[in-house]
Design a protein that fits this description.
Elements lengths: L3 E12 L6 E12 L3 E5 L6 H8 L8 E10 L2 E2 L5 H7 L4 E4 L3 H4 L6 H13 L3 H14 L5 H4 L9 H13 L5 E5 L7 H18 L2 E6 L2 H7 L2 E6 L2 E7 H6 L4 H8 L50 E4 L2 E3 L4 H7 L5
Parallel strand pairs: 3-8, 3-9, 6-7, 7-8
Antiparallel strand pairs: 1-2, 1-4, 4-5, 9-10, 10-12, 11-12
Helix pairs in contact: 4-5, 4-7, 5-7, 7-8
Length: 333
């Protein structure tokens, strides 16, 4: 049985925004075992990336601040470590692939130098040794003519090649945890498939755990073992991937799944949407954050905040009526 690598408990990260803080992450809880992949999904502004940046302790302060909670990684609470200790962990034990590789990579340095710098810093290697490992990492992620490519700059790489270089950099120290923040954004479908297959291949070879942050449920179905659904800074559903797709128990999850186009249908269909807009994170409503947009909301939903609780084996939801949805199994739409 896999061992627990990461446990996030009641994490709250707020940003100063006028008289009231913006509650970007507001009580998020989840766990991740060694060698497994957790998908974090939700629309823009739901708190996915802020959760990742909180785990890395990269929240800019000010205006942001991790207000409370625990982030236990390999038995250590990251929120209690000094900045010097976190620097030893970042890039070494925990690595991150950022959304836009063009802005994440330094345009003034070659790809090889940037990868080698990470290796030299964390693995106590000479520049020459780190350079050789950087070339090997570029080969590992499928970049042809790696020796020559290592001497080139980011602008000389295509989008897919830059993303591969970012993966090479992130995996260069064989981290225990890889956080991938929208790793296939702005890539064409063919390159997306290549990147996802590459990540799965390297995960098996290195036994790396992955947090996959995405709004693409197709990516989740293809790569993730478990899924955490976020809405307005909170986790509203958590389950293994198969159960979540077969039997979602939160109305927001239904809305996300229903908004996906049906490619098997031969008839034209109008895409379904979730009506309304997410709430203002500086002025969250009383009760359930999703109540204003939920077609099944009742009086209690506007008065009492539902807590994330286990409805069946390792399937958690934050909805007052999850047990009723479970008993109806597929009758609600």
């Amino acid at each position: 049985m896999s061992n627990e690598l990461l446990r996030v408990t009641d994490l709250r990260t707020y940003f100063a925004a006028g008289p009231d803080p913006a509650k970007a992450v507001d009580g998020v809880t989840f766990s991740l075992n060694e060698g497994e992949t957790l998908g974090i999904v939700g629309e823009s502004g739901s708190g996915k990336s802020v959760t990742a940046m909180s785990i890395m302790r990269l929240i800019p302060n000010p205006p942001g601040k991790i207000v409370s909670g625990e982030i236990i990684f390999s038995g250590k609470n990251l929120l209690q470590l000094s900045e010097a200790a976190m620097r030893r962990i970042r890039g070494n034990e925990i690595s991150m692939i950022f959304q836009d590789p063009m802005t994440a990579l330094n345009p003034s340095f070659t790809i090889g130098n940037q990868i080698a710098e990470v290796i030299e810093l964390h693995q106590k290697m000479t520049s020459k040794e780190a350079g050789k490992v950087a070339v090997e990492m570029l080969k590992m992620v499928g970049i042809p003519e790696a020796e020559e490519r290592a001497k080139q700059y980011p602008h000389q790489f295509s989008g897919g090649m830059r993303q591969r270089a970012m993966i090479a950099m992130a995996l260069s120290c064989k981290p225990k945890l890889l956080i991938a923040d929208e790793p296939t954004t702005a890539l064409d479908v063919t390159v997306q498939a290549q990147i996802l297959n590459l990540m799965k291949k390297l995960q098996k070879e290195l036994n790396t755990s992955i947090i996959m942050i995405t709004h693409d449920l197709g990516v989740v179905a293809e790569t993730c073992d478990y899924v955490a659904v976020m809405y307005a800074g909170r986790c509203v559903e958590y389950s293994d991937t198969v159960t979540l797709f077969d039997n979602p128990l939160h109305p927001y999850t239904w809305g996300l799944l229903a908004s996906q186009p049906n490619l098997d249908s031969k008839e034209k269909q109008k895409l379904k949407t979730i009506k309304g807009n997410p709430p203002d994170l500086r002025n969250l409503p009383l009760g359930c954050n999703f109540a204003e947009r939920c077609p099944h909301a009742q009086h209690i939903c506007f008065e009492k905040e539902p807590q994330l609780s286990e409805i069946e084996n390792n399937h958690l939801t934050a909805c007052h009526f999850s047990k009723e949805w479970l008993s109806s199994r597929g009758e609600v739409s």
